[in-house]
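4.2 Preliminary Data

To establish feasibility before requesting continued support, the project team ran the inverse folding procedure on a target of 320 residues. The structure was first converted into the token representation described in Section 3, and no sequence information of any kind was made available to the design step. The complete token record follows.
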């Protein structure tokens, strides 16, 4: 089962059964920045769809809702996929001058109910990583008897680590869930603290802090959010207002990490040794996503040149 988000004139979050090619659930999104993921919700111990809800500014902060939707009941689709339906629960997040983007659930089997996300101290860039908790041990966890209380909104706890000297482009869990991988771009000057009492709308009128063309892949301890290592060698050329999102991935033991680059290359490092092992050339445009396949010992890369390359031991295959 897959969760996907669709943009365009009618943005929505959807759940699909990939084997049957069937849409199980279609949820219209009230915002254009659509995200969708599958999470296990502790109050009912069931995998549900988490999707974007309303976002509004309130003085100096953003108030954001996340909606949880039930997918199936006793093995069947709960309702027709496009029939309007109320969410199972509404969760509320209070940010600062940016809301929470790029929600990434922890790998299965890690601590259930944790998500990584990006937010920031300025509206036009993310510079903070956050861990959101749906876990029953969280102080904000929902009680089981609240599971069907759709009229109420529950505050969702989170903890953060800020990086004021850089913009954070993406965040991803390592395969075992013990590490967080982030591509970042250093700022040409440290972001100054915005004036006290400045509203979100006033902050939006300010230009985004300028960024360097270098990219640094940062590895964090997922539990403490402490910095473990930094890896460079790939570059970016897009503007500070719309920096290109470059996704990263790790091998099963997280010693090998990889990233795409705006330089049309795939970059591979050894995390503990701090060495760049490979700079793989083959794409003609920006490489925006990479993924390791442990079963076949290959690294897949996807690019804006509309090609996927499978990198193996001494050979490559291209799928157009």
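Position-by-position output of the design step:
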């Amino acid at each position: 089962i897959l969760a996907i988000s669709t943009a365009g004139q009618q943005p929505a979050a959807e759940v699909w059964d990939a084997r049957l090619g069937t849409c199980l659930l279609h949820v219209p999104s009230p915002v254009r920045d659509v995200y969708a993921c599958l999470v296990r919700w502790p109050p009912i111990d069931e995998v549900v769809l988490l999707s974007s809800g309303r976002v509004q500014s309130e003085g100096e902060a953003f108030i954001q809702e996340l909606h949880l939707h039930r997918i199936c009941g006793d093995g069947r689709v709960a309702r027709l996929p496009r029939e309007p339906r109320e969410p199972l629960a509404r969760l509320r997040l209070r940010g600062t001058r940016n809301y929470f983007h790029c929600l990434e659930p922890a790998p299965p089997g890690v601590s259930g109910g944790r998500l990584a996300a990006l937010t920031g101290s300025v509206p036009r860039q993310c510079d903070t990583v956050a861990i959101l908790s749906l876990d029953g041990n969280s102080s904000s966890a929902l009680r089981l008897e609240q599971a069907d209380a759709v009229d109420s909104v529950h505050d969702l706890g989170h903890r953060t680590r800020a990086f004021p000297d850089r913009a954070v482009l993406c965040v991803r869990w390592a395969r075992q869930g013990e590490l967080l991988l982030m591509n970042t771009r250093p700022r040409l000057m440290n972001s100054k603290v915005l004036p006290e009492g400045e509203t979100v709308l006033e902050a939006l009128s300010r230009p985004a802090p300028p960024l360097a063309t270098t990219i640094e892949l940062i590895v964090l301890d997922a539990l403490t959010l402490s910095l473990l290592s930094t890896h460079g060698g790939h570059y970016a050329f897009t503007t500070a207002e719309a920096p290109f999102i470059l996704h990263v991935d790790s091998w099963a033991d997280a010693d090998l990490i990889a990233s795409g680059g705006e330089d049309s290359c795939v970059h591979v490092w050894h995390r503990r040794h701090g060495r760049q092992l490979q700079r793989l050339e083959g794409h003609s445009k920006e490489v925006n996503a990479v993924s390791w396949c442990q079963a076949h010992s290959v690294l897949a890369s996807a690019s804006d040149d509309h090609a996927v390359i499978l990198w193996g031991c001494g050979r490559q295959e291209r799928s157009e």
